[in-house]
Amino acid sequence: MGMDEDLRVLRDYLAFTVPHVTVLAGALLGVLLILGISVNTALGIFAIFYGFMLFVLGLVIGSHFSRLLWYRLMMAAFAGLMVVGALILLYGE
């Protein structure tokens, strides 16, 4: 696999997996809001859950793509999403 092909495979993997995680995390957010949880608390839980699920998707393919800069940036963004969620939970009220 060449670098361009690796990037294409990574893009395709994300294109077919991220929408499913997005729907699942969005459903969790909706349920939390319907249950009457405060918006900031629900958003914090959503961000942590969404970031965690995306991070797990990234870990599944880590052995194949860990040398790619885009993969490392993607994983940093997913971890950052979890941190933002924690910050919203801690300081959002």
Helices and strands, with pairings:
Blueprint (H helix, E strand, L loop, with lengths): L2 H32 L4 H22 L1 H4 L3 H23 L2
Helix pairs in contact: 1-2, 2-4
Q: Report how far the terminal alpha carbons are from each other.
A: 49 Å
Low-confidence blocks of residues? none
**Range of strand content:** under 5%
Mean pLDDT: 94
Principal-axes geometry comes out as elongated
Which structural class should the secondary elements be placed in?
mainly alpha
Radius of gyration, rounded? 15 Å
Put simply, the count of helices is 4
Could you describe the largest sheet, including whether it forms a barrel? none
Fraction in helix? over 70%
- SSE run: HHHH
Can you count the beta strands?
A: 0
Task: Kindly describe this structure.
The protein is mainly α. It is built from four helices and no strands. α2 runs antiparallel to α4. The model has no long low-confidence stretch (mean pLDDT 94).
Note the main attributes of this structure.
93 residues, 0% strand, mainly alpha, 4 helices
Summarize the structure.
This protein is mainly alpha-helical and 93 residues long. Helices cover 87% and strands 0% of the residues.
